[in-house]
Design goal:
Length: 288
């Protein structure tokens, strides 16, 4: 039985730096390229740079970490005394990050299990936190993987964007869907489903879209004990108002966390985005 399991994730999990340091979670950053210059995802300064670049119509793209970036994290885990690692990442349909993690694992000096959560953002963060709880309880690799997969399967993620143009540019949503939204001036509400970003509904105004975002979040939470994560890009007041309403209305809210979206996510959703992850806390793993 493996006695010590290391955890590795990527920067789209949006985990607090204090939490990752305290729990020994290694975070490998994605990269964002602004007008030809590459930056590591993760810092508020880069988020501001990306937001300004998007508003100015500059070229903004993202790239996955390299396999060597992951290999370095796995080697560090081995040096620290871990006997195995579980590497937990955003949806493989949205990024090649989990593929890079698997390639890095080939040369790793310890066994590595890679988990594609089919999620993104704080949904991924909630999965990693659950895995960290399992590691703290002394779980082995198989149990940590089972916990991560079970938690990921229960989380629902909803996203409001002012426009689908940024998602279209990055290839994260179909050109036909993006064109439909632009042609009819509708405000889309999106959902992460089966690892992909899909249109949940379309309404005519921002107010109606935000009301629908709140409604589907409350319906998802229902009367279950849940954690909720709120992302925003450039609209902190809007996010804070929504958080206040959810704190009043969700009957069994155990934790609500809010943060600005990182630059790697922000590059694909654009300013004005609001995203919510609803994560039930009573989850049973059914095996690896």
């Amino acid at each position: 039985m493996v006695r010590r399991v290391a955890l590795v994730t990527d920067s789209t999990a949006h985990l607090d730096a204090g939490e990752t340091a305290h729990r020994g979670i290694a975070v490998v950053p994605l990269r964002v390229i602004v007008s030809g210059t590459s930056y590591d995802d993760g810092s508020p300064e880069v988020v501001r740079l990306v937001t300004e670049a998007l508003l100015q119509g500059k070229s903004v793209t993202t790239s996955r970490p390299s396999p060597m970036d992951f290999l370095a994290a796995y080697r560090e885990a081995a040096r620290a005394g871990s006997e195995a690692a579980v590497s937990i990442h955003l949806s493989g349909d949205l990024s090649g990050t989990s593929d890079a993690a698997r390639l890095g694992a080939v040369q790793a000096p310890l066994p590595v299990a890679v988990v594609d959560t089919r999620q993104i953002g704080m949904a991924l963060g909630f999965v990693v936190s659950a895995a960290a709880d399992a590691v703290a309880r002394g779980a082995d690799v198989a149990e940590v993987v089972a916990v991560a997969r079970a938690r990921a399967a229960t989380i629902e993620t909803f996203v409001y964007v002012d426009t689908m143009e940024y998602l279209r540019r990055g290839g994260r949503i179909g050109a036909a869907q993006a064109l439909l939204g632009s042609a009819f001036a509708v405000k889309p509400l999106l959902q992460v489903r089966n690892g992909q970003i899909e249109v949940l509904t379309k309404v005519r105004t921002t107010g109606r879209a935000l009301a629908e975002l709140e409604r589907v979040t409350l319906a998802s939470a229902s009367t279950r004990p849940v954690e909720i994560g709120i992302h925003h890009l450039g609209v902190p007041e809007r996010a804070a108002q929504l958080a206040a309403r959810l704190r009043q209305q969700v009957p069994r809210l155990e934790r609500l966390v809010m943060s600005e979206a990182g630059s790697a996510i922000g590059a694909h959703v654009g300013p004005g985005m609001l995203g919510l992850a609803v994560a039930p806390t009573e989850v049973r793993s059914t095996g690896a």
